[in-house]
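Ticket #4471: complex job returned nothing on first submit. Input attached below:
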Amino acid sequence: MPSATKDRILETTAELFRRYGYTGTGLKQIVSEARAPFGSLYHFFPGGKAELGVEVVRRSGRLYLELFEAIVDQASDIETGVGDFFAGAAEVLRQTDFADACPIATVALDVASVNEPLREATAEAFDSWIDAGATRLAAAGIAHGEARKLALTTIGGLEGAFVLSRALRSTEPVEAAGAAATAAIRSALSGSASSGDAFEPGRSDASAPKM
Amino acid sequence: MPSATKDRILETTAELFRRYGYTGTGLKQIVSEARAPFGSLYHFFPGGKAELGVEVVRRSGRLYLELFEAIVDQASDIETGVGDFFAGAAEVLRQTDFADACPIATVALDVASVNEPLREATAEAFDSWIDAGATRLAAAGIAHGEARKLALTTIGGLEGAFVLSRALRSTEPVEAAGAAATAAIRSALSGSASSGDAFEPGRSDASAPKM
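Support reply: We reran it on our side without changes. The output follows.
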């Protein structure tokens, strides 16, 4: 069976998880929306929905990580890059009428207590984001411990803002979270620049924090 | 039928939503764990699971709001109160082996796109928390617009930290979010004290921000 079918199943399932969660997504719905024969699902994923779920979480984790890296690479600095990422998330919410949240968050809330392989997949995806964010922040001159905390609160801030934005049908929570994340990064960069306790690869924009 | 049965149904359903989400919670599971006759569910909630869900979201919204107000009232100031609230959330996660997230967040992610009365109930609950937080922060001397943004990012930070903590089986995200929220409040209080652009009811602890 062509692997294009497998890709369509994975893409469709990720979209359904974003909108209805893991538990609320049915196998018939997946094959119908992916225009795939029912047998193809068990052909590609012999472990059924749980195996498919693990694959979708891993794939989404990689794709969002690549998106984050691409946006930060295009930006003039990490603070601008993080701000751009939040602005992009707000735009997707508007375009999808507040339907598309994070598929990994919905899986984590739905089944973290009852499906250990799926929980581990969500943990690995979040860990990869935390590591990537912390590495970027440390490279910008923030001490490693502080960089990890900032990565955690930035990612947590975005995930929580998705919850509020979906409920309130407003991008205000994502915008507020983006402003708070960039302000915290600016403040940490400014602190590291003045105290000089972190490695600073050629930073020259040590502007004052404006919170 | 005694209303104690109704209370047990509401309490049990809230716990099941925290662990399995709205979609993952079944009616048979509810009446079984609540030790209630099946007929009692439709006696108290003729609209079935959707009506029960709306009641549970409203009740949880009120209970967490009362808890927040009680913890802040006991604390010496708003910054300490918010820190205590996050510390309490981390303790509950540890005690429940990371099973208990927020029942309103799981409902919001599960059904915000497909059940408008339930989405409205989650929006009303979050709005009541945002208003209460903003009112407290404004009373402490922070300008109203800034107070609303701080309330939004504090609540969003907690909800997102629940997602990460459940996935990672660690309280680190909740602890980092609590530290970030109290640092942002401290910074806003310090800024309002120095710039004098907000009403300050007898504040004297204008300490420097430490981010």
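Confidence is low (pLDDT under 50) at residues 194-211 of chain B. Closing as resolved unless it happens again.
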